[in-house]
TrEMBL record:
Protein name, UniProt field: GGDEF domain-containing protein
PROSITE patterns: GGDEF (PS50887)
Species for this entry: Nocardioides piscis
Statement: the UniProt record of this protein carries the keyword Ligase: no
Record-linked Gene3D superfamilies: 3.30.70.270
Domain GGDEF: 184-318
Entry keyword annotation includes Metal-binding: no
Alphabetical keyword list: Membrane, Transmembrane, Transmembrane helix
Transmembrane segments: 22-42, 49-65, 71-87, 94-112, 118-140
Domain of life: Bacteria
Pfam families per record: GGDEF
Length: 338
């Protein structure tokens, strides 16, 4: 835009030869500013710094309009400047720059006493430019929202809005990498709902969907801040816990989850159902195992929980704990996973 402004000023020299020195200075300044803008990595600048580019742009456009004697010649460049504002900045910045542009752009005409150019710039050019900026900003915002929604749909389960299997595996891999780097304990809880298939088969998929959504909500409520809950598929879920101080912390979270899920769930037609969940836990301290291996071993622990009577919490590789209460009331056990 600065380079085009320079060409416009030079082209206007034959029209107003008496202003040739000023036009040459403006043309040279525009080329210098254009070179500086191209050389600087302004795309990586913060918003406040890139907004400063409008100051020389408006000033050069205003002086170019005065030297060329017509706002019609510089008007398209003025609109282009506001189009750039709408592309990279919000509505607040657009209106702020509109007030600035009105003052800067109208000042040379007011000093020269050119009323017609003054009216044309204030009541025609500025409103049109602002409208262009707002339309572009609205379109850019719609595209950004659509892109975010598509990214969310690609990485999250549509039913529960939890991370899907692929995203859960990515998050688990990242958690294990951080655990290996920081030498912290990571716990992986593999959950499978008890009695879900019966509800899905006898009451229909609508009731089953309601159960899955309720389970997802209860998972979010019971895990710690910073923990990750995801849906692996069907009635299987995973919880990834980082920075676990002791195994008891993970066991406590698992017990809260089993207790919350066992509470009544309202489904279609005001009917209430009850389900349970079995949990397999795999602890990983040094992050030496891959995400696939850790999840597989948590699944083995889950299999032991199912085999031992459901509604249990089983730790992979743990020796039997004589103090563990296997009664259904506590829904908790700690068994050896072979």
């Amino acid at each position: 835009m600065f380079a085009l402004t320079s060409m416009l000023v030079v082209a206007a020299i034959p029209i107003y030869p008496e202003r040739a020195p000023i036009q040459i200075v403006l043309g040279t300044t525009s080329l210098v500013v254009a070179a500086v803008v191209l050389a600087c990595p302004w795309r990586s600048w913060p918003e406040s710094r890139t907004l400063a580019l409008v100051w020389p742009a408006f000033a050069l456009l205003a002086l170019s309009t005065w030297s060329s004697g017509s706002a019609a010649l510089t008007g398209p460049f003025f609109v282009l400047c506001f189009a750039w504002l709408g592309l990279h900045h919000g509505t607040r910045q657009v209106f702020w720059c509109a007030a600035l542009a009105t003052a800067v752009y109208a000042a040379p005409h007011a000093v020269a006493g050119d009323v017609s150019q003054l009216v044309e710039s204030i009541f025609t050019l500025v409103p049109v430019s602002v409208c262009v900026a707002l339309l572009i900003h609205a379109h850019v915002r719609q595209l950004a929202e659509a892109r975010e929604q598509m990214a969310f749909q690609a990485t999250h389960d549509g039913m529960t809005h939890l991370p899907n299997r692929a995203e859960s595996m990515q998050l688990l891999h990242a958690a294990l990498s951080r655990g290996r780097r920081d030498k912290e304990l990571v716990a992986v809880l593999y959950l499978d709902l008890d009695g879900f298939k019966v509800i899905n088969d006898t009451m229909g998929h609508r009731a089953g969907d309601a159960v899955l959504r309720a389970v997802a909500d209860r998972l979010r409520a019971e895990i710690r801040a910073g923990d990750i809950a995801g849906r692996l598929g069907g009635d299987e879920f995973v919880v990834v816990m980082e920075s676990v101080t002791t195994e008891g912390v993970a066991l406590e979270v698992a017990e809260r989850i089993t207790g919350a899920i066992s509470e009544p769930i309202a489904v279609a037609d005001d009917r209430v159902v009850r389900i349970g969940t079995s949990v397999g836990i795999r602890f990983n301290l040094d992050g030496s195992s891959s995400a696939d291996v850790v999840l597989h071993e948590a699944d083995l622990a889950l299999y032991e929980a199912k085999k031992s009577g459901r509604g249990r919490v089983v730790v992979f590789g743990a020796a039997p704990d004589p103090s563990a209460d296997p009664s259904p009331r506590k829904w908790k056990a700690r068994w050896l996973c072979a």
